[in-house]
Amino acid sequence: MTSTELSAAEAAGPWVDTGTRPDARDKATGMTKYSADMPVPAGTLEAVLVRSPLPHAEITGIATAEALAVPGAVAVVTAADLPGGLAGRRVRDMPLLARTVARFAGEPVAAVLARSREAATATAALVDIDYRELPAITDPVAALDVASPLVHDAPWGYPGAVITEADGPNLQSVVTGGEPEAVSRALAAATTVVSATYRTPAGHQGYLEPQAWVAFPPENGTTRLWGTTKSPYRLRNQIAACLGQAPESIRVDPAPLGGDFGGKGGVYDASLCVALARLAGRPVRLVLRSEEDLVGTDARHPAVIRVTVGCDAEGRLAGLDFDAVFDGGAYASAKPTPPVNLHGAMDCALGYRLPCYTLRSRIAYTNTVPKGHMRSPGAPQAVFAVESALDELAAAAGINPVELRRRNLLDAGEPDAYGHVWAEARGRETLAAATRGAFCTGEDAPDPHTPSPQERGLAHGTGVAVYARPTPSPAPTSLMLTPLPGGMLEVGVPIPETGTGSHAMIRRQLAAELRLDPSEVVVRQLPTTALPGDPGVGASRVTVGLSRAVARLAEKWRASAHEGPVMVTLPASTEPPALTYCAQVARVAVDLETGQVRILELVSAVDVAEIVNPQAHQMQIDGGAVMGIGFACLEDLLEDDGQVLASNLGEFRLPAAPDIPVLRTVLVADGRGVGPANVKAIGELTNVPVAAAIANAVADATGTRVRELPITAERVYWAIDGRADDSPA
Amino acid sequence: MTVRLSLNGQPREVDVPATASLLDVIRDLGLTAAKAGCRIGVCGVCSVLVDGLPVSSCLYLAHCADGADVWTAEGIAKVRPEVVDAFVRCEGMQCGICTPGQVVAAVAARAELGPAADESQLREYLIGNLCRCTGYATILQAVKAAADGH
Amino acid sequence: MATEPAFVAPTTVQEALSAMQADGALAVGGGTSVGLLLGQSLIEPDVLVWLGRIPALRKITVDRGQLNAGAAVTLRELSWHPAVRSSLPALAGAAGIVGNPRIRAVATVGGAVAHADPRQDLPPVLVALDAAIEITGPAGTRAVPAADLATGPMETVLLPGELITTVRIPVVPSLRSVYLRFTPGSTADYPTVAAAAAASRDPDGTLASVRLALAAVGPTVLAVPEAAELAGQRAPSAAAVAEIADAAARRALPAGSRLGSARYVRAMAAVWARRALTDCLSR
Question: What is the domain extent for residue B96?
Answer without folding.
Answer: 80-149
